Every structure is written in structure tokens, then in C-alpha cells.
Amino acid sequence: SIENCTYPPVGNTDSEAVFCAILNALKAEFHTLPTLPVLYQTLQRLCAEIAVGSAFSLPILGQEPGL
Questions:
Q1: Using CA atoms, how far apart are residues 57 and 9, in angstroms rounded to an integer?
Q2: Where does the chain have alpha helices with state H?
Q3: pLDDT at 1 over 70
Q4: Is the dihedral of CA 41, 46, 51, 55 positive or negative?
Q5: What is the pLDDT of residues 34-67, one digit of tens each?
Q6: What number of CA atoms fall less than 13 Å from residue 50's CA on the CB side?
Q7: Coil, strand or helix: which one is 17?
């Protein structure tokens, strides 16, 4: 639930809720800092799960090394 998450949205936009959900999922999945390729793959998976049946935009700085 939103009340028990580490990164709750402050506003009420869909994009903020998605961003906070991704932050909370990353915190739950990693206890130490992952490598960039692992982080990139995880972000791809999380975004794909969130985007099922909908479209959203999430600005991300940079891209996977080698692309």
C-alpha cells in the first residue's frame, strides 16, 4: 500500500505514481547497488509490467552502455 512504501508520491499525477512505484520496486529488489546492465534490464522489466495495456512516458537520463 502507498502508506507503507518508502517513496510515496507527493502529488497525484499518474507519472509520479509510476516513478514512485519503480523506486519502491527497485528498493525491494536490490539490497546493494546493481551493475548498470542489471539495473537497465530491471527497469525495462518494471516498465513493461507497468505499461501492459497502457502508455506512459518516463524520462530517463542516459541509456544502456553500448546502445
A1: 16
A2: 14-29, 36-51
A3: no
A4: negative
A5: 999 999 999 999 988 887 766 666 655 455 444 4
A6: 21
A7: helix
